[in-house]
Design a protein that fits this description.
Barnase, Chain D; 4 strands; 5 helices; four-stranded parallel beta sheet
């Protein structure tokens, strides 16, 4: 799957990527890595259900694109780290039921990444496994 988005925002580590490899490349505590299952995140609703607990979003998370952007921008306040990784297992299924959701997610992730870099000097990377 080739998701739209800024260069380096999405890293495709299929088929050889492993959790251990991610931790090696993006070591804690410098990076916080959240793992989600792309098979459960085939659409927007599934993504919101998977990403909220993985990144420890607050209970009032609104499960829409604006709320996702707000929570991603607030990651340093909630989960202090030098950078953030969203590792998507079963990436072939990730947002597979909606190309529009893929575009919207790439836009949100790109905006969040730019904000985190500018304000906190922190990176956001999505790794496809």
């Amino acid at each position: 799957m080739a998701l739209p988005g800024e260069e380096g925002l999405f890293l495709d580590m299929r088929p050889a990527g492993t959790a251990e490899g991610i931790i090696e490349k993006f070591p804690p505590p410098a990076y916080f890595t959240a793992f989600i299952d792309g098979g459960k995140a085939r659409d927007k609703a599934g993504l919101m259900a998977e990403i909220a607990p993985a990144f420890r979003f607050p209970s009032y998370f609104g499960k829409n694109w604006d709320a996702l952007l707000d929570c991603l921008r607030s990651l340093p306040d909630e989960v202090p780290a030098g950078g953030y990784v969203l590792a998507v297992r079963n990436a072939g299924d990730f947002l597979a039921s909606s190309p529009k959701d893929q575009e919207d997610f790439a836009d949100v992730a790109g905006e969040a990444r730019a904000f985190l870099r500018e304000k906190f000097k922190a990176d956001l990377v999505i790794i496809l496994l």
